[in-house]
Amino acid sequence: MLIVLLSALCAHAGDYYVNVATGTDTNTCGTMAAPCRSINATFARFSPTPTQGDPAVVHVGPGLYYENAAPDAPQTGFSVPNHTHLISDNGADETVLQVDLSQLSFAGVVYVVRSQQIGMAENATDITIDGFTITLPTGEVDLQNHSVVGVNMGANFTTEIAPTGNVIRNNVISLSNKNGRTSYQGEGKGVFVAGGAIVDCNVFYRIDSVGIAMGAVNTGMNGNATQPGEVTRNSFYHFTSSQNLSPRPSDMHLAIGIDVPTTVRGNLFDFTRQVSIDRGFGVVCFDCTGLVAENNVFTGMPNLFDAPISLVSVTPTKGPFVPTIDHNTFFDSASGLQGYDVSTNGLGGDNFAPTVTNNIIWVTEAVRDVDAGTYDFNNWMGAALPPGSSNISSNPQFQDTVHRDFRLTMGSPSLTAG
Predict the structure, then answer these.
(1) In angstroms, rounded to a whole number, what is the distance separating the alpha carbons of residues 209 and 186?
(2) Lowest mean pLDDT, pick from 9-18, 98-107, 333-342
(3) Contact assessment for residue 67 and residue 41, using Cβ atoms and an 8 Å cutoff
(4) How far apart are the first and last CA of the chain?
(5) Burial of 99: CB neighbours in 10 Å, binned 0-12, 13-18, 19+
(6) Which pLDDT score is estimated for 9?
(7) What CA dihedral angle connects 285, 193, 50 and 85, to 10 degrees?
(8) What local confidence, expressed as pLDDT, does residue 417 receive?
(9) R_g over Cα of the chain
(10) What is the mean pLDDT of the chain?
(11) Which range, 23-32, 100-109, 266-275, 309-318, is most confident?
């Protein structure tokens, strides 16, 4: 009786296997001994249809998966059903997802990985993408009239159903469209999601122009709330820069839309790059509610209008929004926290009253054009700092800023004050 019970607990009816080296798409894909060769063919084998309580788990062997989801989605490499956990056996170093570009239409958006469920009826639910390098066939392609997205969970599509339960973890996402330029910016985007998702422990590099974008959901008559987002333990670096574009584009590591409560914790936002034409922003909050930014490092944004954290007032008199900015490190930047007003197309963050505490903001101007809020226990620099209590301005004495080691030496004043 005990043996039968243990067997029932260990079994998982929704396990599938893919191996580009040993698999065949005529296999059942239900065992390691009979894997499919392609990921999209494996999705077609799902039986029964995966559900919230019984997801399909797709184990992907090492290798290069170069696919196109045509005819249903010819602009997409991998079209993932809801309640599917796509997991690499060997991790991002050995497992690569690329979109086959041979069937693209003249213009549009290219998706490497995209949820099948996007639109009014339903949206991405319970999808996990874990352990892949997500990229284009070459490090930088030349796709005229196309923009490129690494992972899409419903953003840029009309929807009234908030995506839920989506996880993007342990991936390396690198894609740059050299000359696509469907508009004056937006050639490449790492992750797009309508509403929140868990985006954890990924590397975003060689992207132009958005690392992660979380947009609001039109709740309409359904009345469902936008899911919160969690952006944790990611590294953003070596973003590319557009050439000779006017107006000068704005590149963002993380863009948070209206009414998307998001926790941003333990990330490295490094905008250091060889060519610095585009404006660089770490976290951009567009009238976003419930932003918590803590234990992050922001660096490499030295131009006047760059900003590690930008609080953007979209709708006049809305708010006040009270983001929490706590225990972060800012270095090698023109500003730390900056306000911007869309209605006047100029600096000013009137919709915000942030709580800014326990940070090291060792930049030219710690706070620019955000007057309201609480500012206590910071070590910062600036000519016009807002009032607060127990703030200091003393060299924090980092270990090795050249090699991005922002640990504090034993004699740092930030260990005992600020």
Answers:
(1) 5
(2) 9-18
(3) no
(4) 63
(5) buried
(6) 37
(7) -80
(8) 73
(9) 23
(10) 84
(11) 23-32
pLDDT the model gives residue 159: 56
| CB 387 within 8 Å of CB 375 | yes
What amino acid is encoded at 379 in this protein? N
Residue 221 has pLDDT above 50, yes or no: no
Backbone φ, ψ for residue 134 (5° rounding): -115, 115
Instruction: Report the 10 Å Cβ neighbour count for 325.
Output: 28
DSSP string of 57-111, one letter each residue? EEEE-SEEEEE-BTTTBTTEEEEEPTTEEEEESS-TTTEEEEE-GGG--SSEEEE
Query: CB of 126 within 8 A of CB of 89?
Result: no
Rounded alpha-carbon distances, angstroms, from residue 198 to 89, 245, 365: 20, 33, 32
Range in 21-35, 96-110, 273-287, 311-325 the model is least confident about: 273-287
In 3D, which of 365, 366, 364, 369 has the Cα closest to residue 378?
Answer: 366
Residue 23 CA: distances (Å) to CA of 18, 39, 60, 61, 110: 6, 10, 11, 10, 27
Is the Cβ–Cβ distance between 282 and 253 less than 8 Å?
yes
Angstrom CA distances, 229 to 75, 112, 115, 270, 291, stand at 27, 22, 17, 21, 9
Q: Which residue has the tokens 């196309």?
A: 146
CB atoms within 10 A of CB 49: 11
Tokens 């270095």, residue located: 331
Query: How many Å apart are CA 190 and CA 281, to the nearest integer?
Result: 15
Pairing of strands 398-400, 405-408: antiparallel
E strand or H helix that includes residue 203: strand 203-207
Structure tokens at 318: 């809305």
Query: Model's pTM, two decimal places?
Result: 0.90
DSSP for residue 123:
-
Residue 51, amino acid: T
What's the half-sphere exposure (Cβ side, CA atoms, 13 Å) at 91? 5
Torsion of CA 19, 99, 57, 17, to 10 degrees: -10
